[in-house]
Design goal:
This is Tetratricopeptide repeat protein. Keywords: Membrane, Transmembrane, Transmembrane helix. It is built from 27 helices and no strands. The chain is mainly α. The chain is globular and about 85 Å long.
Length: 601
């Protein structure tokens, strides 16, 4: 044995050795399999198992740098944006459903009381507590709400059932009222028609048919056509129960001839309004009357002539206004022409606007008279304007000036007579502060501002602030004493020269127009109508009135069309009645009225 491989040291002792460490982690060789006499098969180990730990350590790649937390969460930002966009889209597509989930205290309270009244059998009334009134109030709050419309239909069904019970009990008058209410709420129908016929037959049974016909003939002989005891109603009552009654049928034809004669006489006299009323009654009673088309044609000719006369009077009034002939004793003044137009057509908007311009012109003249110190002339002009437009804002402001002004040459310090409204405090009571006395004129003759006590100044400021708040709430002319109009006048009654009060009063028409637009945009058409009436009172000559009136009429026509589409004939009838007051000549009015009448047949 060589010394190199001898484990013993130079002193002859054996040193411990570890041997070859390179194969330390190599698996131990498997023990030899027993010889079973079969051919030997070698199975190759998988590559990943064959690699040693040391070789894996040698081949291990460099460690990748660790990513920052912000980089790891970077994908969350677009995901969050995508979620937000998705939620916004879902909310937009389901906004009506989501809006319905929001509590509506006022609407739900009215609807709850309406359902309670329906369950209690309090179907109709005039005190605002009946089911019909409450459901109609709910519809006014939300015109498109199906629950309110379904409630009205439920009231109609209840009225129908109640009418049938009343008929069975022999209370024919009550049954008639219930049937009428059911027809209004349900828009007619087979059940309502059957109830009407049953009531008519019951009346005819209680009253001999010949007696009823005789009463009708007597009413016709006396010229009594209208009313529940008139010939038209009595003959119609007989025919409702006995459609084949020849005597009643002939009597109804005679009533139609009487209406036609009335219409012809009115047309010959140029009375388009009376003729139109008679023709409408004839068309309702006998829609197939032979002379009805010719009467309609003659009515159109008379109506055109009537309209021409009204338009001519309005044109002449505007010419007189431009020429400075405002008012006076002659018949060629603007006031005389506009009053003539209103005599022919009391609801003519052009004539009403012209009359408002007369009021404005008289107020301007009155202010000029105040400036020149002619209080007597100013007071006479304002008195004349007061008759035409008692609630004009400009007129009230001029009245306040007149109450504070003193004659330019007099120089008197005596307090002027107050013509404004009595001041009211925050609670609506009479103010304790008295109007301030005007100061004496200075050497130049200009009117000095009156001196106010601190209490008066505070009261004026408080009233002006209350008036502003009332205007923002929409309390323009009502309630009395707490409306913006009354509060501004109360401030001016203390200090007619207060600029904030005068400006606020004269700016009320502009505020009313703004409130009108907001109400119209929000679908609150009744409120918009109230604002239009306020504008007519505050500024009767405002040129915006015609445009606002047409816009409101269009909105009511749109609502009537929607109501007809949904089968709400009573609601459509009420909407069309609003249009007749706003724009009686609107072309869509005749179209929708015909559609309403056809729906009832």
């Amino acid at each position: 044995m060589s010394g190199r491989n001898d484990p013993r040291g130079p002193q002859g002792r054996t040193e411990p050795t570890l041997g070859n460490l390179d194969d330390l982690d190599r698996p131990a060789p498997a023990p030899p399999a027993p010889d079973d006499g079969l051919p030997r098969v070698d199975v190759e180990a998988p590559p990943h198992r064959a690699a040693s730990a040391s070789s894996r350590a040698r081949r291990q790649p460099e460690a990748e740098p660790e990513q920052s937390p912000a980089r790891k969460r970077g994908w969350l930002v677009p995901l969050a944006l995508l979620v937000v966009v998705g939620l916004a889209t879902v909310a937009w597509l389901n906004q009506d459903t989501l809006r319905g989930m929001v509590p509506r205290t006022s609407f739900n309270d009215v609807l709850s009381r309406a359902n309670a009244a329906l369950q209690a059998g309090h179907l109709d009334g005039t005190d605002g507590t009946s089911a019909r009134e409450l459901f109609q109030a709910a519809r006014a709050l939300e015109p498109d709400n199906d629950r309110a419309l379904d409630g009205l239909r439920a009231v109609g069904q209840a009225e129908l059932a109640q009418g049938q019970k009343q008929l069975g009990a022999g209370d024919l008058d009550a049954a008639t009222q219930s049937a009428s209410a059911a027809r209004e709420l349900l828009g007619g129908g087979t059940d309502v028609d059957q109830l009407d016929r049953a009531i008519a037959l019951a009346r005819l049974t209680h009253m001999h048919a010949s007696d009823l016909v005789e009463r009708a003939r007597e009413a016709l002989a006396q010229g009594k056509l209208d009313g529940p005891d008139g010939a038209a109603a009595l003959f119609t009552q007989v025919l409702a129960a006995d459609p084949g009654n020849a005597v009643a049928s002939h009597g109804l034809d005679q009533v139609g001839s009487a209406y036609a004669d009335l219409a012809r006489k009115a047309l010959d006299a140029g009375d388009a309004a009376t003729a139109g009323t008679a023709i409408d009654k004839l068309a309702s009673l006998l829609p197939r009357y032979g002379d009805l088309p010719s009467l309609r044609a003659q009515q159109a000719q008379v109506q055109r002539a009537h309209d021409d006369a009204v338009n001519q009077a309005v044109t002449q009034g505007m010419e007189a206004l431009r020429a400075g002939r405002i008012s006076g004793s002659g018949d060629d003044t603007a006031l005389a022409y506009f009053q003539k137009a209103l005599t022919l057509d009391p609801n003519n908007p052009a004539a009403q606007s012209g009359l408002g311009k007369v009021v404005q012109a008289l107020t301007v003249q009155a202010n000029a008279a105040i400036d020149s110190g002619d209080d007597a002339q100013a007071r006479a002009l304002l008195d004349q304007a007061q008759v035409l437009a008692p609630k004009s804002a400009d007129l009230a402001a001029a009245r306040a000036r007149l109450g504070q002004a003193a004659p330019a040459a007099a120089g008197s310090s005596a307090p002027a007579t107050q013509t404004g409204a009595a001041p009211t405090g925050a609670a609506g009571g009479t103010a304790s502060a008295s109007p301030a006395a005007p100061a004496k004129d200075d050497a130049s003759g200009a009117l000095l501002q009156p001196s106010l006590t601190p209490a008066q100044q505070a009261q004026v400021s408080s009233l002006v602030q209350q008036a502003k708040e009332a205007a923002q709430r929409g309390d323009i002319m009502l309630p009395p004493g707490q409306s913006a109009y009354d509060l501004y006048r109360s401030a001016l009654a203390i200090d007619g020269n207060d600029k904030a009060a005068r400006d606020g009063l004269q700016n009320l028409p502009a505020t009313v127009i703004q409130l009108f637009n907001q109400a119209l945009q929000g679908g609150r058409l009744a409120t918009a109508g109230d604002m239009l009436g306020n504008l007519s009172d505050l500024s009767p000559g405002d040129p915006n009135q015609g445009q606002l009136r047409n816009r409101l009429a269009e909105a009511w026509l749109d609502r009537a069309e929607q109501q007809l589409d949904s089968g709400d004939r009573p609601g459509a009838s009420q909407s069309l009645d609003r249009v007749r007051k706003l724009a009686p000549q609107h072309p869509r009015l005749a179209e929708l009225t015909a559609r309403l009448n056809n729906a009832g047949q």
